[in-house]
Amino acid sequence: MSENRPSRRSMLKAAGGLSAAMALGAGGVLGSASSASAADDGFGLRIVERGESDPRMWYYRFSTPEIGWNPAVNVLLPDDYHTSGRTYPVLYLFHGGGTDQDFITFDRLGIRDWTAGKPIIVVMPDGGHAGWYSNPVTSNVGPRNWESFHINQLIPWIDANFRTFAEYDGRAVSGFSMGGFGALKYAAKYYGHFASVSAHSGPASLRGTVAGIPGAVVHWANASSAAIELGGGTVYGVPWDENRVNMDNPCQRLDSYRNKRLFMVAGTSPEPINWFDTMNEVGVLQTQREFRGLLDRAGIPFEWHEVPGGHFVRPDLFQNDLDGIIDRLRKA
């Protein structure tokens, strides 16, 4: 993962030090596909580019009024999708933040190999460089309504165009870093959408104190989104939109995690010479511990892993998580 860290440094510098740290993720590059066009499909989406030549990884880019540019999605199909005729559960998998982050991040990291032979569709959409899987309070660069794009447009589009179980027990959501927060947020805010939720090095508390800063993750979301996503606008507003913070904060939505499979990973020993990883993962660890304590007291079960290392995707734990997701969801 070390090859991705220089670009994370540049993002952190642009966002102003610690304030951007929690938005960082793993690296990615843009894929290529042939141009195509289609009429609005009824979900407010219009396909402007598509690639369906790869037997497993299909690619689409959309025009949507929710986003001021054309976001894309990778749809990773099971090995036997084209021959089996079966219906499959779906994992929505979210990338982290950073100027090198997009829908192809997990393809670069090895998602094809990790899912080989697995009976599940994996949907990996754009989520913005620092979109925080939210509709921002303010934007100076046009619409960046990632939450509306994912929940109101992309999910129904996937269900309409692929053989999926379009129901609670047919969907999981997971993510890394900023994407892990997005997964926790969506699973609580849209309770009936996802039966399993996973946060790989994703912060789990908006209002908690990190490095002596109360509400640190809200500050980081605002600073990073202002720097590289919203042209000075912010996700949560200045002063904060308190209702939005309450609605998005996993620690204030505990009952929404009942009857779900819940999986979390955090690193415990980032390299002391790598200040960037230290700030990311120390904050993740503190917020996940706060969240886990609240879940314990509420009697809500979860699986957690604290493992050595810093802020990066751990393939072994991702595959462990994937097996648990498949076990929890409806079977293909």
UniProtKB/TrEMBL annotation:
It catalyses: an acyl-CoA + a 1,2-diacyl-sn-glycerol = a triacyl-sn-glycerol + CoA; 2 alpha,alpha'-trehalose 6-mycolate = alpha,alpha'-trehalose 6,6'-bismycolate + alpha,alpha-trehalose. Its EC number is 2.3.1.122, 2.3.1.20. GO terms for molecular function: hydrolase activity. It comes from the Bacteria. Keywords: Acyltransferase, Hydrolase, Signal, Transferase. Residues 1-38 form the signal peptide. It is an enzyme of class 2 (transferase). It holds the Pfam family Esterase. Belongs to the mycobacterial A85 antigen family. This is Acyl-CoA:diacylglycerol acyltransferase. It comes from Streptomyces orinoci (Streptoverticillium orinoci). The lineage of its organism: Bacteria, Bacillati, Actinomycetota, Actinomycetes, Kitasatosporales.
